[in-house]
Amino acid sequence: MRHSFYRDIHKAIRLMLGELTIAVGQTDFTERESFARLLPKVDEAFGLLAGHAHHENAFIGPLLAERRPDVARAIETAHHDQDEQLATLRSALLAIDCRGADATARGHAFVLELSRLVAELWSHMADEEEIVMPALWATCDDATLGEVHQRLVASIPPPEMIATMRFMIPAMNHAERVQFFRGLSAGAPPPVVSALLDVARGTLPPAELARLEDALDPPSQRAA
User: Most exposed residue of 38, 196, 204, 218, measured as fewest CB within 10 angstroms of its CB?
Assistant: First the structure.
């Protein structure tokens, strides 16, 4: 299977959006404490979405514009629309007054608008994997794709990387996690590997964590 810019990060975003949708639906917008617990979750999710689109625009966008300008224009337009939707949604959320008579109605309106955005994002991500990535595979060799991906990953600030990995690691399947950590161990400084293994320890169920650790450091080798 050829390298994909999107597979792993999109799994992370789908998990994040699913958890956010559940959290929003469970929020009582008439209770200050319930509302206050929601706000940082929305800010984190919206911040990661904005960061993801920015990284795509900065690194994948120029390559796509060079090789497939027609596809690049459509993706750029979609990202611009998403930025506006995120800003509008956040403003609507902050405008809700828990003490207001319309708090419940406005809270549910936010639930519905978020669900529309999530549906659009899921469709957009499928387009990127089914249209954008094949267009790049057809016009770029693996060395080019790998070099762009390395520059993209290197540009992500450590706090954003850790926040993203909190969703990406549990969203992967076992084989993908093993591949990810083996590749990481081959090229990243030990403190980075250690930090992301700590993320795995904090996000994976015990059985999945044990399976990962056994794959990365087999018991037979530990005994030796």
Answer: 218
Helices (H), 68-131: 69-94, 103-127
User: How far is residue 121's CA from residue 101's CA, in Å, rounded to a whole number?
Assistant: 32
Angle, helices 206-216/174-187, rounded to nearest 10 degrees = 50
Domain span holding position 184 = 172-224
This prediction has a pTM of 0.92
Closest to 42 in 3D by CA, of 108, 114, 109 = 114
Which of 124, 156, 188 is the endpoint of a domain? 156
Question: Angle at Cα 79 formed by Cα 77 and Cα 81, nearest 5°?
Answer: 70
C-alpha to C-alpha distance for 79 and 68, rounded to whole angstroms: 17
Task: Assign residue 12 a region (left: φ > 0; alpha: ψ between -120 and 50; beta: otherwise).
Answer: alpha
Considering the domain architecture, whether residues 36 and 115 belong to the same structural domain is answered as: yes
* Cβ 214 vs Cβ 206: under 8 Å: no
